Amino acid sequence: MCHSTDVLECVVNISEGRNLGLLSTLAEACGDDLLDVHIDGDHNRSVFTLLGISAPRRLSQCAVELLHLENHQGVHPRLGVVDVVPFVPLVDSTMFEATQARDEFAEWAVTTLGVPCFLYGTEKSLPDIRRQAWSSLIPDRGGPDTHSTAGAMCVGARGLLVAYNVWMSGDTSAEAAHALARQVRGDGIRTLALKVGDHWQISMNLIDPLRIGPDIAFDRIAQLVPFMQADIDHCELVGLLSEAALKKISSERWDKLGLGIETTIEYRRLHGYNF
Question: Fewer Cβ atoms within 10 Å of its own Cβ: the N or the C terminal residue of the chain?
Fold first, then answer.
């Protein structure tokens, strides 16, 4: 049983980003353990940043009861209404405890909700599951069939990462957007080029943010755009980042990069969050 409930972060990705009434109900289910909600209507996806191991269960149960995967339309890939549930060790907790929390959550999701779960962490990555689910990979817990309305969940244990989007100008071509994503990908950066409305977005996971943070990711794209007939429109942090990752970046750049002290995990733990 995992006991470090107050120092584990859980970043639950829900396949709903347009119905604010439903999202408000989901936020209420999280109670005081809610640190942030990032809503994206084009992706039709919302990212709930939570503390502990109880709130992810309350949120997931509520989402499974209220949402139907067949009704979902959005540009972001997904396997379920509760799509991704990573547990992340913060200060004074360990990856071992995060992995325990992951395994306990997956067992709960199968037995209580009837939703099969793919597990990721040291065994395999989330991109591995995205590529191979239902072909060469079946759920690690439950299954082999999907839940009739909720699909499946990807439940993980990982270190801190930063989800970060760079939006391109409206005249950026599909060829340029995909080329940018390919050339920036690697060395601590995972990328997707996504068409969102009239704009292309370079959607990134920065998996080693103390080494390669939003500033470096932005600069790599900025160095390439003059050669690709593209330009950057704006930047967007999805969820929160650690104070340590923020403070590695010059404060003079925070505003342009869409960052600030109020976007840190530590600030929200101290000051709370209202949906």
Answer: N
Render pLDDT for 89-103 as a digit per residue (tens, 0 to 9): 998 899 999 999 999
As a whole number of angstroms, the distance between CA 257 and CA 241 comes to 13
Q: Is the preceding peptide bond at 144 cis, omega within 30 degrees of 0?
A: yes
Give the pLDDT confidence of 30-40 residue by residue, as tens digits: 999 999 999 99
Q: How far apart are the first and last CA of the chain?
A: 31
Q: What is the pLDDT of residues 105-146, one digit of tens each?
A: 999 999 999 999 999 999 999 999 999 999 899 999 997 889
Tokens read off for 142: 């439950």
Say how far apart CA 238 and CA 181 lie, in whole Å: 18
What residues make up the domain containing 136?
A: 5-157
Q: Which of 85, 19, 16 lies closest to 50 in space, CA to CA?
A: 85
Could you tell me if 208 and 149 lie in one domain? no
What is the CB neighbour count within 10 angstroms for residue 174?
10
* Together in a domain, 180 and 218: yes
* Cβ-proximal residues to 223 (8 Å cutoff; 6+ apart), any chain: none
Number of domains making up the chain: 2
